[in-house]
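One chain shown below:
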Amino acid sequence: MSIRAVDEAPLNKFHRKLTWACAGGPFLDGYLLSIIGVALVGMSGELHLTTGDESLIGAAALVGIFVGGLFFGAVTDKLGREAMYTIDLAVLVGVSVLSVFATEAWQLVVLRFVLGIAIGADYPIATSLLAEWVPNRHRGRLLGILILAWYVGAAAAYTIGYVMAEIGGHGTWRWMLASGAVLSALILMMRIGTPESPLWLVSKGRTADAQKAIERAIGRTVSIEDLLAASAAEQAVEQSRFRDLFQGVYLRRTLFCGLFYMCQITPMFALYTFGPTILGSFGLSEGNGSNLGSALISVVFVLGCIPALRMVDRVGRRPVMVWSFALMVIPLAVLGGGNALPVAVVILCFCAYALFSGGPTVLEWTYPNELFPTGIRATAGGVATSISRIGAAAGTYLLPVSLDRLGIGPTMLIGAGITLVGLLVSVAWAEETRGLTLAEASAMPGRSRSAAAGGDRRDDLRESGAERS
């Protein structure tokens, strides 16, 4: 079972506000990670950047995300979702402001690395908070909206970058980076005052605080007995430590979440970071025209997420995941034809890949939050993010090198191969969690629903909770 008052509550103003506030982080992530691709054109000439410098600047944020996800997911499980929820946004504001004044390549590398740490921290923070507040029947769709916000942010970055470059030329790259500080400050204000997750509060024995949070957010009163029962269902003492992510069935789930995530975003991040360069390699106009092309492709990524948002709660997680990966391989394989392909075919393939990628995209944060219990939920999300960024950082760093040495065709075929690995991982390990409560979805295979609903630990937790409260 779960906290019935939360799980069965109708969607209300609180849920909508929380969704938008949580989505603000991924929106910023998409914006900040994509605006650098537009700004690189201008800063490269002004700061005399080499190809190696550009690769380091492009990959630094992804390395930071690896560190941020790995470390701050565990911190979030220990300290709570609410405090970390605003701190990471404050860091984004500060780093974006400092980036405006950078005069050396190494300064941008360091600032982008710190920015990546804050982004990596936000992924498990915002997604676990939303997953633990929203009703069960809407969980897949609302978590999917968060990743949809990422693509909206990326499209906004290319659009704003295009407009700035049209008005002031590529010398406006500092203003492009400054725009991230303004957006970060606005979303930070949206997040102030968000209540803590009741499941996390109960897991720490703070049942009275959980009662107050639920009553304040959705206007319902829940007894301490119900809260203790929910805690017994959500977690097990023996599965609440970092090392448990790498043991037994949780090892398989950790590998699944990290690997499918990595195989989905490795080609995607390379496309976003060096979108204008890639389109130029196919014979499309480089410069600001290719920025507009990247913006249009970003819009198609958004459109691809929309049907997937509906299907994950209606058709199921597993079929959406498997079929999407299978279809994503095709356009990347066609792009292996290189610059001999007609421009229309190139655009069609990029758009097809963007549309088909909606399935794995909207499940990037759904699966980690459903397959692990409350005590390690944010930790699992952070580890999955970190695993994914190993490939994303390597792909972003190596893409310019691959374009120079291998050419655009072989580079696209490598992307197709990575996507094929994602398909194989999904076929082998993707579980179906549609319609399950968080307790049922995160339970060990073979455990009965009654065991997932609390088992023998309920009396122990009731006694412990009574002592603490």
